[in-house]
Design a protein that fits this description.
NADP; Rossmann fold; 13 helices; 17 strands; 3 domains; GDP-L-fucose synthase
């Protein structure tokens, strides 16, 4: 199409926190605003944006008409303190390359993502878009702050000298699924979630750096994604715009920690390490300009967004644990749908107990069990010490204590590696004692092994793909997956019987020879 509305949108940092949220929002938009839009989500593995030649090659490959520039070298407070020069130089290179190559290739609009850390340390509150250059930013992350601030200078330069439309957004503290949960270089909320998970897992106190008194405005990544798309489609000014919740929604680090504790269902002790620096005390931003454009925009309530973010982390953790169990043990599966139209998945692992305690619920330290009682599962704890119950609904996941297995509902998956080993033994045997050109048994084993390996690899990678690319339909995906396992198991049993027969025949032939 050559329509003027047709957009080819390149999203740098496309697999990060905000980029993945934009992708999620686009894929789930009910309106038709994106019908003339094509998006390309780029990660750092595809292009080093610090390199001019690689950046030019990227733009040549995708030929974007619009760019949402999210890529940056980022880190938490303590990483910023030790690497200010690196943050300044790398981010300046990235930003200059993006805007220069965008201009050279005729990109119509670039939206760059800034941060509230660009505002002066010593200022009046609330801060607004007119105050960006009124003083020096906080010393703790001056390198990153100045590099981000220079985007505004570049935007104005391109507008004045070349009459092009480049603008920027200034979100407050962003959080949500797919964040950087590294404790050392992640931001405050994902760091708190990771710490809380570890404290719960290890039954230790939750240690929070600083006094807990600093104030922050947090914006949920999916809310920010919706606002980014509005800026792309409707915001025409080159002047930056703050994307934030209102001043009245500002919370302290202590209040944020309490929300995380609640979201993770953490029952342990919470301590504050006041020997650690607090950083900037407050960065209260005004969203008055945003509200003048979108007076009715509804932000996701903070505690609700925190709970969903925590649940997403637990889903990822449980999925990884599930995959470990699947590959390391013989496993029994049950999948049911209850009266509330919620998917319930049961599985028993015979050969693995993740915390090494045979007489206790194996995965209990990892995830909450507060929804187990309604299913009357607790009395079966000792009897079913290695059976796990997974409960899914739209926003939460719990691994609970076990239940009594109904043999009429089970799906059994055997250990595929032993099966593959049997085929390999057959192949080695036939290749040594049998003429491969004449021995049909060799070919049966050879091609059967190839078919089996391809089907297993395809099956498992498809499962991982759908889990990590469609979190919204988690129940549907698991239902589909286990329906596939039923078919797969039937085929698997047939193949197993066939290979055993072939093995017996092979032994008989070799004995007679």
């Amino acid at each position: 199409m050559t329509s003027e509305q047709q957009k080819r949108v390149l999203v740098t940092g496309g697999t990060g926190l905000v980029g993945s949220a934009i992708k999620y929002v686009i894929e789930n938009e009910s309106n038709k605003k994106n019908q003339n839009e094509e998006y390309f989500f780029i990660s750092s593995s595809e292009c080093d944006l610090r390199n001019r030649e690689q950046t030019e090659a990227l733009f040549k490959k995708y030929q974007p008409t619009h760019v949402i520039h999210l890529a940056a070298l980022v880190g938490g407070l303590f990483r910023n303190l030790s690497r200010n020069l690196d943050f300044f130089r790398d981010n300046m290179q990235i930003n200059d390359n993006i805007l220069y190559v965008a201009y050279q290739t005729g990109v119509k609009k670039v939206i760059s993502c800034l941060s509230t850390c660009i505002f002066p340390d010593k200022t009046t509150y609330p801060i607004d878009e007119t105050m960006i250059h009124n003083g020096a930013p906080h010393d703790s992350n001056f390198g990153y702050s100045y590099a981000k601030r220079m985007i505004d200078v570049l935007n104005k330069g391109y507008a004045v000298q070349h009459n092009v439309h480049y603008t920027s957004i200034i979100p407050t503290n962003v959080f949500g699924p797919n964040d950087n949960f590294n404790i050392e270089d992640g931001h405050v909320l994902p760091g708190l979630i990771h710490k809380c998970y570890l404290a719960k897992k290890n039954n230790t106190p939750l240690i929070i750096w600083g006094s807990g008194k600093p104030l922050r405005q947090f914006i949920y990544s999916y809310d920010l994604a919706r606002l980014c798309l509005w800026v792309l489609r409707e915001y025409d000014s080159i002047e930056p715009i703050i994307l934030s919740v209102g001043e009245e929604d500002e919370v302290s680090i202590k209040e944020a920690a309490e929300a995380v504790v609640k979201g993770m269902d953490f029952q342990g002790e919470v301590k504050y390490d006041t020997t650690k620096a607090d950083g900037q005390f407050k960065k209260t931003a005004s969203n008055k300009k945003l509200r003048s454009y979108l007076p009715d925009f509804k932000f996701t309530p903070f505690e609700e967004a925190i709970k969903y973010t925590c649940d997403c982390i637990l889903i990822i953790i449980s999925t990884l644990l599930y995959i470990i169990c699947l590959f390391l043990s013989d496993t029994w599966f049950i999948i049911k749908q209850n009266t509330n139209n919620e998917t319930i998945i049961y599985f028993q692992s015979k050969n693995i107990c993740l915390n090494g305690k045979d007489n206790k619920f194996c995965i209990e330290p990892y995830l909450p069990i507060n929804q187990c009682n309604e299913y009357d599962l607790i009395p079966w704890t000792i009897r079913c010490s290695r059976k796990y119950f997974i409960f899914f609904n739209k926003t939460s996941l719990n691994i609970c204590n076990c239940f009594q297995i109904s043999l009429t509902n089970i799906i059994y998956r055997n250990n595929i590696f032993i099966f593959i080993l049997l085929i390999l033994i057959n192949l080695i045997t036939f290749s040594k004692y049998c003429s491969t050109k004449e021995c049909i048994l060799y070919y049966l084993n050879k091609y059967f092994l190839l078919i089996l390996l391809i089907s297993i690899i395809s099956f498992e990678f498809y499962f991982i793909y759908i889990i990590f690319n469609d979190k919204k339909s988690i129940e549907k995906l698991y239902r589909n997956y286990f329906s596939m396992i039923q078919i797969y198991s039937t085929i698997f049993y047939s193949f197993q019987i066939l290979i055993i027969i072939i093995h017996i025949i092979s032994i008989i032939i070799l004995v007679h020879e």
